[in-house]
Amino acid sequence: MKSTTTGQFARWPRRVAAVLPLASMLMLAPVPVVHADEPPTLAPFSSAQGAQAPQPWRFTTLPNKAPTRFEVVQQDGFPRTAAELRLLPGIGAYTSAAIAAIAFGERAAAVDTNVERVVARLHGLKQMPPADAERLTLALLPADRPGDFVQAMMDLGATICRPRKPRCDACPLAPDCRAFASGDPEAFPERRRRAARPHRHGVAYWIERGGSVWLVRRPARGMLGGMAALPGGEWGDAGSDRLNAIGTVSHVFTHFSLDLAIVPRSEPEGEGWWQPLEGLSEAGLPTLYRRAAELVLAARRAA
């Protein structure tokens, strides 16, 4: 599909163009890719639920935000402020502020690691607590065109004010930058020591009948919120019952690692639906459960 150009954005109504940063932040963040030549809308989602969403919109780099798309269109229009957007499951402080600033012109401080680094170096700060990062970024935000400023700061941190070998000679903030003046901009801010990642265990049940597998939807809030999944219990620190397990999938999330044992069962568990195995790729399973299904099917072929 062809990407839409900036010139085409300009001729679209503001209320329609607002869909672009929303879709970009939720689905492809932080890469603003649009795969349509006509003004996009969220109309296809107005009656869609979960796996029935249009295929091009179903798989994203941020799967835990998938249910948010459907919650947005079920409201009376878009949430227009960072505070309102923050109430939607799957949207945090950064995403809500970025959408509010870019789509609706709110003077909201969108602070990711790139922006935090720019601000820390500008002020010559070795330590940058989140509250200070937001406060100092907000102080820099202009009243006019805050969305452009937010995007400029993102690009500045990603391409010029890089963690290593920053291109200070090309930086428009260099004359006022205390880190640059120190002669060692890479020393700002100091790197945080990462805490040891905890390890968890869980069980997923493979329930198959008549060429279909039983799937459920995870709770809207929490890890992989609202996504299709194999049924199973909570993930915990203690080892799970792996009696008769077909196999185990190891997966690493941002804040913990997980061993998920796949155990066969005969009866459906929880509210869900029968997904034909031949259409399993269309169920919208996140990577963890897709790998679990692949493990089961591979074990069957090898038997």
Net shape: elongated
CATH architecture of the largest domain: Alpha-Beta Complex
Regions with pLDDT < 50 over 5+ consecutive residues?
Answer: 1-17, 27-75
Q: Look up the CATH topology of the largest domain.
A: Nucleoside Triphosphate Pyrophosphohydrolase
Distance between the termini: 41 Å
Strand content: 5-15%
User: What's the name of the CATH homologous superfamily of the largest domain?
Assistant: Nucleoside Triphosphate Pyrophosphohydrolase
Q: Report the total helices.
A: 11
How many separate structural domains? 3
Class based on secondary structure composition and strand pairing = alpha+beta
Structure commentary:
The chain is an alpha+beta fold and 303 residues long. The protein folds into 3 domains: 6-104, Endonuclease III, domain 1, CATH 1.10.340; 113-187, Helix-hairpin-Helix base-excision DNA repair enzymes (C-terminal) (Endonuclease Iii, domain 2); 199-302, Nucleoside Triphosphate Pyrophosphohydrolase. The protein has 11 helices and 6 strands. Strands 1, 2, 3, 4, 5 and 6 form a 6-stranded mixed sheet that branches. The radius of gyration is 23 Å and the shape is elongated. The model is unreliable at 1-17 and 27-75 (pLDDT under 50).
Question: Summarize this, please?
Answer:
The chain is of the alpha+beta class.
